């Protein structure tokens, strides 16, 4: 359909509702008027829009911070649009320089294959797998060959590339930029050409790459995609974006009890951002709940609702109920019903070595730090002596609020 036909399509209540869902929790939707036209055309023709999310499988697991953009995909999927889960097996060989002050080492094809399988399996806990198109960008990137890559590179200038924030900073501070890093945004943009994308989603750190897709689609004579960026979810610490390296994350493959307890550990203020970005409740429901809390209702009630919703999504309603009861038991000083059983030898064994061997602390030095902080209990009693040696026997050992093990020492 030509552009003039798109602009004359009337905006219905259905389109307004779809726009409201599209805008929920987003950082930017660019250009919004073009997205409204696309929605109106889709409604008029019955033709679903093609909505793309590309993820490079750089690690085997994803955390709930990654699900912010997946939730948005699911909302658009539920409106009847075609979502495309694009696995960047080719672009992972280059390494995404976004937000980095150094060249990222590319992954091996073997690492990419293993990670990609886990990524999609975990993403399917949010998306409807029966209605999700799975693609790998090696499908069209590898056949390009050297001549195709040169032709693609001719469609963008070095000056425009150097406007990108991370490249500009690295150049002005004298840090190296490898030529192959310029290929990454080009290849991500070319994905949108290959898939004829109507909308591409990503985090705020991906804006340059997403806009590259618009530029290249125009270069190849296509109607340009719209771009939707989602905020980066703040982690458990309430300060930094959720990240494994910051240890402020909730992995979506974590057990239900840990997941539930971690959600309850966030601040009352952060909770409302999490509701907007992670909950499937309507904005009206969230606003009503917030008004109740501001009117005197215990904020913990709302946080329990959020914890149960998230735990149910990745486990089950029964697991969420059990996790809530487990949390209540722990808060009363009780021991959870199910804790790891560990058998160790070497009695009498020092407490630091025991914590390390039982996987309750990553190292003996970290174990000693936990003891200094009063975070270690044996049979319910706080351990204050780092020189403590335990004789043969069975002990319930607790580290912090959530780590337990029943250790049998011989």
TrEMBL record:
Keywords recorded for this protein, A-Z: Aminoacyl-tRNA synthetase, ATP-binding, Cytoplasm, Ligase, Nucleotide-binding, Protein biosynthesis, RNA-binding
Enzyme class, spelled out: ligase
SUPFAM superfamilies: Alpha-L RNA-binding motif, Nucleotidylyl transferase
Keyword Oxidoreductase among record annotations: no
Reaction(s) the record says it catalyses: tRNA(Tyr) + L-tyrosine + ATP = L-tyrosyl-tRNA(Tyr) + AMP + diphosphate + H(+)
EC number of this enzyme: 6.1.1.1
Extent of motif 'HIGH' region: 57-66
GO molecular function, one term: tyrosine-tRNA ligase activity
PANTHER family noted in UniProt: TYROSINE--TRNA LIGASE, TYROSYL-TRNA SYNTHETASE
Task performed by this protein: Catalyzes the attachment of tyrosine to tRNA(Tyr) in a two-step reaction: tyrosine is first activated by ATP to form Tyr-AMP and then transferred to the acceptor end of tRNA(Tyr).
Full protein name: Tyrosine--tRNA ligase
Organism of origin: Acidovorax delafieldii (Pseudomonas delafieldii)
């Amino acid at each position: 359909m030509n552009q003039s036909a798109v602009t004359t399509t009337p905006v219905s209540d259905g389109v307004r509702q779809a726009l409201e869902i599209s805008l929920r929790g987003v950082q930017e939707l660019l250009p919004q008027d073009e997205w409204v036209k696309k929605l109106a055309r889709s409604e008029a023709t019955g033709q679903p829009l093609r909505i793309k999310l590309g993820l490079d499988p750089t690690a085997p697991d994803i955390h709930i911070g990654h699900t912010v953009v997946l939730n948005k995909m699911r909302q658009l999927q539920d409106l009847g649009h075609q979502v495309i889960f694009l696995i960047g097996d080719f672009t992972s060989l280059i390494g995404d320089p976004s937000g980095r002050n150094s060249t990222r080492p590319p992954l091996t094809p073997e690492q990419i294959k293993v990670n990609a399988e886990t990524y999609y399996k975990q993403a399917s806990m949010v998306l409807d797998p029966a209605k999700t198109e799975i693609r790998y960008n090696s499908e069209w990137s590898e056949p390009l060959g050297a001549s195709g890559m040169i032709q693609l590179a001719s469609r963008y200038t070095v000056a425009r590339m150097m406007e990108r924030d991370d490249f500009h900073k690295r150049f002005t501070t004298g840090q190296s930029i490898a030529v192959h890093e310029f290929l990454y945004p080009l290849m991500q943009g070319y994905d949108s050409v290959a898939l004829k994308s109507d909308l591409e989603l990503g985090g705020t750190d991906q804006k340059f790459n997403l806009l590259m897709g618009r530029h290249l689609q125009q270069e190849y004579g296509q109607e340009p995609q719209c771009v939707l960026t989602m905020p980066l979810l703040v982690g458990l610490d309430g300060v930094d974006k959720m990240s494994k390296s910051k240890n402020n994350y909730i992995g979506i493959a974590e057990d239900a009890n840990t997941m539930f307890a971690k959600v309850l550990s966030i601040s009352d203020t952060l909770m409302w951002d999490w509701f907007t970005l992670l909950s499937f409740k309507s904005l009206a429901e969230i606003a009503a709940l917030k008004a109740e809390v501001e009117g005197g209702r215990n904020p913990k009630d709302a946080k329990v609702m959020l914890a149960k919703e998230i735990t149910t999504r990745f486990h089950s309603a029964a697991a969420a109920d059990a996790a809530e009861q487990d949390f209540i038991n722990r808060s009363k000083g009780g021991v959870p019903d199910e804790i790891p059983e560990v058998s160790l030898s070497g009695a009498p064994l020092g407490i630091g070595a025991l914590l390390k061997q039982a996987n309750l602390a990553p190292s003996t030095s970290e174990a000693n730090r936990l003891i200094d902080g009063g975070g270690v209990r044996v049979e319910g009693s706080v351990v204050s002596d780092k020189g403590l040696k335990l004789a043969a026997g069975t002990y319930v050992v607790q580290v912090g609020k959530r780590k337990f093990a029943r250790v049998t020492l011989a």
